[in-house]
Write a structure and sequence with these properties.
InterPro entries: ABM_dom (IPR007138), AI-2_Isomerase_LsrG (IPR050744), Dimeric_a/b-barrel (IPR011008). Pfam families: ABM. By secondary structure, the protein is of the alpha+beta class. The protein has 3 helices and 4 strands, in the order E-H-E-E-H-H-E. Helix content is 36%, strand content 34%.
């Protein structure tokens, strides 16, 4: 992975039964804090039209270091690692990097 190329993250979260609203509330806290990071270029949250309760998050970062800074940030550690991950039945994360 080229360290200077923009990174896009596609995260698919399936909250456990009964946890959907809790996860959405945490995302509402996380999104503005993530967007305030200098290396975050965008952060969009979607509900899947095809898979009920599935949340899709599209994140765009300036480069690999900006993504790493995001993952090490206090808000990511507290909100995602501390509060969201225990509420998920399934989690898939895909890291994309543009060509050329």
């Amino acid at each position: 992975m080229d360290a200077t190329t923009p990174i896009t993250i596609v995260a698919r979260w399936l909250p456990a039964d009964g946890a959907y609203e809790q996860v959405k509330a945490v995302i509402d806290e996380l999104r503005p804090q993530s967007l305030a990071e200098p290396g975050c270029l965008g952060y969009q949250v979607f509900d899947s039209a095809d898979a009920p309760r599935t949340i899709l998050i599209l994140e765009h970062y300036r480069d690999a270091q900006a993504l790493e800074d995001h993952k090490q940030s206090p808000h990511y550690q507290a909100l995602v690692v501390g509060r969201v991950l225990p509420l998920l039945a399934e989690r898939k994360v895909e890291v994309l990097q543009a060509r050329g």
